[in-house]
């Protein structure tokens, strides 16, 4: 299993709620979380088959920015 981290603009509970259905239905993602307390709003994704590019595109489709760190 790989762990990917992204700097995002997901900065509140409503933002997390908006991205939740997109990340939850992404195949290969086991778990994910957003640290909204971190100034970089770090999204951490644990995945066994989804890659960083797919995760980034999914976050962008939900209307947010994601840059791998």
Automatic annotation (TrEMBL):
<dbReference type="Pfam" id="PF00403">
    <property type="entry name" value="HMA"/>
</dbReference>
<protein>
    <recommendedName>
        <fullName>HMA domain-containing protein</fullName>
    </recommendedName>
</protein>
<dbReference type="GO" id="GO:0046872">
    <property type="term" value="F:metal ion binding"/>
</dbReference>
<dbReference type="InterPro" id="IPR036163">
    <property type="entry name" value="HMA_dom_sf"/>
</dbReference>
<dbReference type="InterPro" id="IPR006121">
    <property type="entry name" value="HMA_dom"/>
</dbReference>
<feature type="domain" description="HMA">
    <location>
        <begin position="1"/>
        <end position="67"/>
    </location>
</feature>
